[in-house]
Design brief:
Helices cover about 0% and strands about 25% of the residues. A hairpin with a 6-residue loop joins β3 and β4. The model has no long low-confidence stretch (mean pLDDT about 80).
Amino acid sequence: MVFAVQCPNARCRRFMLLEEHDCNNVVNCLLCKTPIRVGPPPAPGPAPSAGPARVSSRATPSPRR
């Protein structure tokens, strides 16, 4: 299983994909080398429901000529 983690360094904030064998270890950010403590893998949540589309309440401006 693959999951994403984000670097905690405020100047980096890069997302990385990690595999299950990286859980409960410390890995270094690929960009800034900040150590990141990786916890257990995220629990699989319920599938997102496809609800009705949201409609904006603001009127769309007319195109300029």
